[in-house]
Predict the structure of 7,8-dihydroneopterin aldolase.
Amino acid sequence: MDKILLTNMQFYGFHGLLPEENKLGQRFNVDLELFLDTRNAGLLDEMEQSIDYSKAYQHVKKIVEGKAKNLIEAVAETIAEDLLTSFHLLQACRVKVIKPDPPIPGHYESVAVEIYREKNHE
């Protein structure tokens, strides 16, 4: 399966369990892999045969910068569900939500959640 990659998208959101996270907010990075057949897009050179990257970005932005959630697992799940229902050519997606500066004592680069979801073919 072909894929479109959107990497290191950066947003500011208010997700987290701690009150200060919900009040002050923090940075979140998101990586996407969008799985679809891009053959027709490549042959016909028509946007209708693919997924518009800017529209996918806007969907993610609205979720990450929108209503606060307790867990980044919930942020990732919401993104995947939204993308799979919004883009008819999308067959599956991998969503990685990264919290670069979580309020956890210790030395590390970030914490992250990565999920893979497929479209239900009912």
In short: Residues 51 and 87 are 7 Å apart (CA to CA).
